[in-house]
Amino acid sequence: MPSSPPLHRHGAFSPLHGGGLRRSQFTYRQLSQLASSGTSNPLRVVAHVDLDGFYAQCEMVRLGLPKDKPLAVQQWQALIAVNYPAREWGIGRHCSVTEAKKLCPDLIAPHVATWREGDDKWAYRDDADANISTDKVSLDPYRLESRKILALVKDSLPAGLQRVEKAGIDEVFLDLSSQVHSILLERYPELKSPPPYDDPTERLPLPPISALDWQADALIDLDEEQETVDPDWDDVAILIGSEIVRDVRARVWNELDYTCSAGIASNKLLSKLGSAFKKPNQQTVVRNRAVGSFMSGFKITKLRNLGGKLGSQVVTTFETENVKDLFEVPLDTMKAKLGNDTGIWVHNTIRGIDNSEVNSRTQIKSMLSAKSFRPTINTPDQAVKWLRIFVADIYARLIEEGVLENKRRPRTINLHHRHGSQTRSRQGPIPQGKLLDEETLLDLAKDLLAQIISEGRVWPCSNLSLSVGGFEDGVKGNMGIDGFLVKGEEAEALRYAPGESRLASTEPDRPVKKRRVEDGGIQRFFARKPSADGNSVNGPEPSAGGETDLPSRPLGMPNLDLPVGQPSTSGFASAQAEHGLPDADLLACSRCKASFIDPDALQSHEDWHLAKDIQEAERVRPAFAERPPTPRSSSQKGQGASSKRGRGGKLEHGQSRLRFG
Ligand code: CTP
Ligand code: CA
Ligand code: CA
To answer: Same domain for 392 and 454?
Structure first.
């Protein structure tokens, strides 16, 4: 069972040690461990920062528009981002451009940049919406802005104490614990004194303040009972966290012109709910003592990972839509009705408990570039033109990921092809040991295409998608849980069904890593099919009629239960054209940047991350000293960091060029 901080940390105070002085609930040990960002520390401070209407703001900045102008970003006839002034007119992502312009005739609706078949770079084009058959959306402009913002966020935090996790194109988690620790000691020098009797389990004195200045922060209301209790160190810690976040947001606004919203709390789950609580341009603080009342206000299906089938199952099982009512359900009942792991997870989640760590390592698992063709394409030449575009698109992202410096590189490449209802995919390893360049990737992609073509029944083709995956660090770092799992693309590329050709590999044979299979692990939690005992839920399922053309397992998910070497046939609904969904690269996983065409596939993928978190929480349970302490430094905001911008500097200035042979 994952260790879990108690929900209500602020109970009645007991007159403690020494002369009846009231003491803090927290110990000297907990305070000192704040420096090392332990994930189960009750003083922990985590923030989530999310840009408001991000793509829309990017366009506002690009076009130099005043902030009050209504703007929505157009992709073909759909809207993919809407700014807050436009939302006031009732415009949302569900609207078509025509509907939106009816609602607000002054709406500014730039079309996203596109790659164009036969052209050598992405560009903003006035006629893009009329060219769905020859254009492919490019999100490069937004990625570039995202990088700038991320660099500034990092630059705003002291170099030695920061822990920043990019959680999506427009959001980051910050574990502020060690910075907060150092500020606490500066502001309250009494905390530096050794504990009485040198006993770290002694409780701290209470903070010397009875009222905290939260400035403009949105504070989650407290239960009446909590209202009257004096602040303890967790309140002070979160207040300091909130000050840090206010400064970060001010810099993003002053230097880059973007507004964002933030949540400050004791973990990722709560901080993410907090950042969405009041938008735009606000920050919400969820104090520990407010967690119960905060969580009780949510509908079950509004919680992350409970929006899908698992959420519906919980609602049906306990006959309520409200988190509040679930507080009454004992853990044993949850486990009995939902299965052990799911039961524990739901029990914790509704109470705002989440011990997952803020992970500064890059978590990218795969990159996908795809296009559905309307009309279909009919010749190898056309297909190769699209492969060039996909490769350029992917390569630009690889540069961002540090492929040129050999920091991270993919091990496998994968091509999916659709002809009518028939889909095929071929994959192979990417030769290691020399610098990966665009030409090499293109040659590999063409090779895969040639294999598919050689089998016949290829034209007309209605969808092509190219992906790379199996990312590895050039420099070997810590192995996370992934080290115990066979990575998805890697697993597929390393194992071939009889008769499937394989690209020549120049790399030495590597032993295939053993997948960790355990009862009660991820497999059970999100098994594809209901297990015999009916416990497993919410797996990525084949869609009806097999009308899909991408792998059954979202990219980036370990191949947990696919028969070895079987070509995949379902899962991602492609068909974005039919469903009016954004182009292939528009649904990005907020955790690892894997891309999905279909929101359900993305949801399943995110569920998988969560299951992984649970498994990780179970694996690394020892509550303290999970990792070496972060080196302490007295550096102040903005002093050190200077995170280098401009790696792959050419891209910073705009476009990557395609070479047409
Ligand atoms: N996005 C998208 N398709 C989705 C979800 C998100 O294209 N299904 C894009 C949006 O255009 C958005 C960016 O990803 O600008 C970030 O998404 P999100 O944070 O969910 O929404 P925002 O548009 O930023 O709006 P908010 O202010 O609510 O965060
Ligand atoms: Ca956002
Ligand atoms: Ca977001």
So the answer is: yes
